[in-house]
Amino acid sequence: MLAWLENEGHECHLFSQGKHLIRSLGRDTFDLIILDWMLPDIEGIQVLRWIREHLDWHVPVLFVTARDAEADVVDALECGADDYMAKPIKHREMLARIKAITRRTQAQPEDGGTLQLGPYGLNLTTRTVSLRGMPVELTQKEFELVLFLFRSAGRVLSRGHILEGVWGCSPDLNTRTVDTHISRIRNKLGLKGEHGWQLKAVYQHGYRLERVEESPA
Fold first, then answer.
1. 101 and 82 in contact (C-beta within 8 Å)?
2. How confident is the model at residue 109 (pLDDT cuts 50, 70, 90)?
3. What is the full DSSP assignment across 130-184?
4. Do 52 and 75 contact (CB within 8 A), yes or no?
5. Which of 13, 7, 3 is nearest to 164 (CA)?
6. Residue 8's closest CA among 91, 81, 104, 65?
7. What global pTM score does this model have?
8. What is the pLDDT of residues 176-211, one digit of tens each?
9. How many whole angstroms separate alpha carbon 172 and alpha carbon 34?
């Protein structure tokens, strides 16, 4: 299963115990968690409950487990799982479900390849950004960072996760370049609340792009 995901270009992190995943979620961010019910230390359903009770951003969770009783499926979905698959897992079905979860949980381009969030427009074809219809001059790396942030609007993103997603670098490397680029795009796009969106630093974790009440004209 890990090879299927990596062959599709996904960066994967493997945790052998639930407590290791919980510890990592205190400092890192993930686009999706694939969770088994039967873990060596605690049950996967307990990990899911911890995720929904302690994280203030919605990370998608896909249960992949040998337990297929109706009561187990209902329990997992009611506790906040986004989808549930019973083993044995089919390759193409799993990849399709992951894509479907991503479409539901991340902002997607409108027809014509434009991602619109309030007054901000991101054109994925020309790789340009506009604010209230006026173009904003960005470097290509700044555009990639803006796109990454807007697709994950509302979620807390660790510096390491941003570094992996935008620069393709290990999260263990120096993340100062993330802070520098964040500062630049915050200023260029006015992401301080005056246009209805704020790029906020989250203490000891990273950043979150969030909607705020727009100031009266």
1. yes
2. low
3. EETTEEE---HHHHHHHHHHHHTTTSEEEHHHHIIIII---TTS--HHHHHHHHH
4. no
5. 13
6. 91
7. 0.61
8. 888 999 999 999 999 999 999 999 998 778 899 998
9. 23
CA 129 to CA 145: how far, in whole Å?
A: 12
> How many C-beta atoms lie closer than 10 Å to residue 34's C-beta?
22
In this structure, what is the dihedral angle of CA atoms 94, 99, 104, 108, given to the nearest 10 degrees?
180
Element (H, E) at 97: helix 91-105
Q: How far apart are CA 2 and CA 98, in angstroms?
A: 13
Q: What is the CA radius of gyration of the chain?
A: 19
**Helix or strand holding residue 93 (H, E):** helix 91-105
Give the list of residues 6+ apart from residue 99 with CB closer than 8 angstroms, or none.
none
137 neighbors 182 (Cβ within 8 angstroms): no
C-beta separation of 84 from 73 below 8 A = yes
Half-sphere exposure of 51 toward its Cβ, with a 13 Å CA cutoff?
31
Query: Which of 142, 144, 152 is closest to 117 using CA atoms?
Result: 152
